[in-house]
Structure formats: C-alpha cells, structure tokens
Amino acid sequence: MKGLFNWLFPSYCVQCKSPVSASLGLCEYCLEDLALLDVTKHPNLLHRPDIVDMFPSCEFDRLFACAFYRPPFEQWLTQLKFSNQIHYKKALQQVVHRQLNAFFKYSTQSPDLFIILPLHKSRFLKRGFNQVSQVWHPCLCSRVVLNNALIRNKKTHAQSQLTKAKRIKNLTNAFICTEDMSGKTVAIVDDIMTTGATLNAATQALKKAGAKQVWAFTTCLTPI
Q1: Is 155 in contact with 182 (CB distance < 8 Å)?
Q2: How do residues 39-80 score in pLDDT, each as one tens digit?
Q3: What is the pLDDT at residue 203?
Q4: 186 and 146 Cβ atoms separated by less than 8 Å
Q5: Is 0.85 topped by the overall pTM?
C-alpha cells in the first residue's frame, strides 16, 4: 500500500529533485551533504568560542542548534513560515531528527521537559499554525512536551525588522509561565535564533517559575 501511494503521489527531494518516500523531504545523499553543526563535539554550543562571540548575552544555560541560518535552511524556513510549504517541513524534520538523535546519544544529561515557544494568540489566528511546532513536535514524540505552560501574553512587533536593543525592549515581560518549574531542567524550542532576545525572555519567565536550568533548542542560528 505504501509503495502504491508513493507511485500515485510521488514526492521529490527538495535539493536534487530525485524521488523520495512521501514521508521525506530529502534523499539520503542530500541529507548527508548538508552543513550541519557538530552536536557531538559541542553538545553545548555555548562552549564553542565563535558562537559565544556571536551571542555573548545568553541567559539560558545550554544551546543546541542544527545549522546556521544560511541556504538552503533560510529558504526552507521562510517558505514554511510564510507559505506553509509542507515539503520543506519534511526536510527540516529529517534534519532535526538527525541532530537530536546524535545529541541524545552523546549527551550525559537530558531535559525534564520541552516547551515549544508559542505565538501570540492574534498572530496564531492570522497565520493559522505555529511553524516551530509543526517541525519539532513530531520529533519530540518520545519526550515530555508541555503545550500550555508558557504563554506569550504580549503582542510584539516582528523581530526581523528590529535592532538588537529594540528586540530586547520588544520582548520585555513577553512570556508568562503558568506552571511550577521548581528544580526542573526545561528545554525551550524555537526556529531561528538571531540575537537570543526571544529565548532570553522565555528563559526569564521559566527561571522566575523556579526552573533550575533552561536549555535552548533551535533549528538555526543566524551568524553575525
């Protein structure tokens, strides 16, 4: 039945356009060829000197990312976020799966739970979906994921159009944590980290709720 479905509704690799299973967005060769961050050598990217130089003011305790925000990831994330292009979601999920498997294979610690950063209610209603959740939720099926523990209570301006100083001001008190996080290690998930302002704002809310540590998991880092 699966073979018949693939024959009737063929899918193609987003990179080389060769046929792939309907559940995939990349062939194995293109997946292998991507420039991904080495999460086995640097399970905490805050210990990598060049990344610390790019993001010197991180309030979270650990950082995980799949790749830098460069082609082809730039196109994939933009097309998914603003055009809901499903084939790019599949490609991104393959990348996230690969990186998470490598990370948890070599990491001696694991977060107690994951929280995918929410959109403000008005933005979610306008867009109709949370692109971060679309990519990451299926990749975290074996982990504890809380959906309503963090609320974005402040309608902020689009971060992409703001300077670093304005991003920080824009996100002041933007999140509220609705649960007691005392003693927990919490991982927050976002798609793109540009300055770290959004992840810092979420970290502040979680630590205010008692979190022992906050880890940031993101699909891409914007190189500065």
Answers
A1: no
A2: 999 999 999 999 999 999 999 999 999 999 999 999 999 999
A3: 96
A4: no
A5: yes
Dump pLDDT digits (tens) for 101-120. Answer: 999 998 889 999 999 999 87
With beta carbons less than 8 A apart as the criterion, state whether 96 and 103 touch.
no
Q: 120: which 2 tokens?
A: 């403000």
Q: Centre a 10 Å sphere on the Cβ of residue 61 and count the other Cβ atoms it contains.
A: 17
Tokens of 140: 């975290």
The DSSP line for the chain is: -HHHHHHHS-EE-TTT--EE-TT-SS-HHHHHHS----TTT-SSGGGSHHHHHH-TT--SSEEEEEEES-TTHHHHHHHHHHH--HHHHHHHHHHHHHHHHHHHHH-S---SEEEEPPPPHHHHHHHSS-HHHHHHGGGGTTS-B-SSSEEE-S-PPPGGGS-HHHHHHHTTT-EEE-S--TT-EEEEEEEEESSSHHHHHHHHHHHHTT-SEEEEEEEEE---
All residues at 6 or more sequence positions from 166 whose CB lies less than 8 Å from its CB, including other chains:
none
pLDDT tens for each residue of 198-207: 999 999 999 9
Tokens of 98: 């690969």
Of all residues in the chain, the percent with pLDDT exceeding 70 is 88
Please give the structure tokens belonging to residue 159: 């971060």
Query: Encoding tokens for residue 142?
Result: 């074996």
